[in-house]
Amino acid sequence: MKTQKVFGSSLKTLIPLGLGSMLFSASAGMAQEFNNSVIVSADAVNYYFNDDKGQNHELGYQFGLEVPLSQRWSLDLKYLDVNSKLKNRSAESDVDFVHAGPRYNFNPVLGFQPYAGAGIGDLTITRSGQQDFNSTTFNMNVGVKYLFGSNWMGKVEAMMIEPTGSVDNDLALSASIGYALGRRASRATPSAFTQEVMLDQRNLDSDGDGVIDANDDCPNTSPSLAVDAFGCVILDADQRRQLLQVRFDFDQSVIKDEYQAEIEDFAVFLRRYSETSAVIEGHTDSTGPDAYNQALSERRALAVMNALVTRYGVDPARLPIVGYGESNPVASNRTALGRQENRRIEADVSVQVFIERQR
To answer: Which helix (H) or strand (E) holds 75?
Structure first.
């Protein structure tokens, strides 16, 4: 029951003190972070005595000093003074309390910097006409700071005070205004180095293609290739074509050795572009009957197809053949040279490919 009364009453006092301090702080400027300067503070305190001391709860004042030890740790020093009356009596009591101990300052959250600490202290109650009270204490405190302006801060805190040999704890709730001595407290903004790193990260171009990562839809492209605004390689259409022409002796369908290299080149093209196919067209000159020349032209086309299939492994399904006999001459059949040019096969294959554009 004692603890419930103390904490219930404590909350009623803490809410207006805390809200008032924070609202005043927020109205004065944007939240900032502390840079471990020495901070002096003046506090309004509501001290809640447990019943074993026979004292009335009273408001008082407190002076504080925070000395930095490291980036997050600091030494917390306090002096508190409260004038309190004894319960059911008019006699005055003077309460003096000192505290010293380490404090850990957490990372700011939404502009507020929470902290927690512990330490030892000395509580002295000087009573008029009564026996004084003096005890070493063990103390624990939690609070939150809010920096505003350039060096000013607001703070609310709750401290539990446990006198030696007592099972009942006192509670001190405070709201304060503090001032950071020496160098100005810094805003919670990145350092110049951090800003530079952040800027570099925002403008990072991991693959060196000239498009920052944030806009790059095609990462890991080579810097030697031209890319579009989205970091993807620009592809240029290119038409690839391979021709094959093999001539035959009169009334023959045997492939002469001089054409083997050309047939091989044609096979290499077909294997490289496996989605292509080529029609092999056979032809003759005008010597002899039409029916004979038709069959001869087909045998010539078949001879070339077989060479591509057996020697170079081209799928025969990609090599349809057709014979035109003497119907499609490319030269005059009136001369020996013209007839030689007409005794032939022809094949033509083409494919569109896309080439990566170089810078």
So the answer is: strand 73-85
